[in-house]
Sequence to fold (235 residues):
Amino acid sequence: MKKQVSLFLVFSLLITTLSVSSCKMSKTGKGAAIGAGAGAVIGGVIGSRSGNTAAGAILGAAIGGVGGAAIGRYMDKQKRKLEEDLKKNTPTNGNPEEEVKVEREGEGIKVTLGSGILFDVSKADLKPQVRENLRKMAETLKEYKDTEILITGHTDSDGTDEFNQKLSERRANAVSNYLSSLGVSSSRLKTMGLGESQPVLENTTAQNKQKNRRVEIAIYANEELKKKAKEGKLE
Fold:
């Protein structure tokens, strides 16, 4: 049975930043909520309801105005580095654009990795050939340290809801744990398994199902970066 977040939960999160376990969130390291403060939590909930939790978390962390524009420039630089990290020599089974996407979203970055380059079918062990790309990504994430990182796992509709939910959690955790092992602070890393609940396409063809099997990474400003941006101290 698909889980839905109630309006009561949304208002409760707004007031108290409560646990978002009903959004199927699992914690990595010390982080107990999506992103930097209640805004990103609410954004993640709204994103879950509207069809994309990663985009919602970025939206919820936005500050707008001059500060938001400064954060945008910071993210532009990071996006260029991430594209180099992930797209160069990334093994693909077809069109590289379908396997790896690095997109600027609001005041953040959304990275989409096709599960085909990361995992074998129904598995959650990272393929050896993609580890080098993730190692490069980890170096960029450490360089741009004033960000929060939400990693969401997604599956197609084959199999049971329970199997897909657990598989999506394991896959998100596999990426998070590997980045953490490379020195990305675990306090910055949050994971969510979303199973088959947020397809990008209808699960009607093998090609569509392949696109639905993915890991999405949302990168957005933490409170320190927001403070610097608001004070005009962000380079």
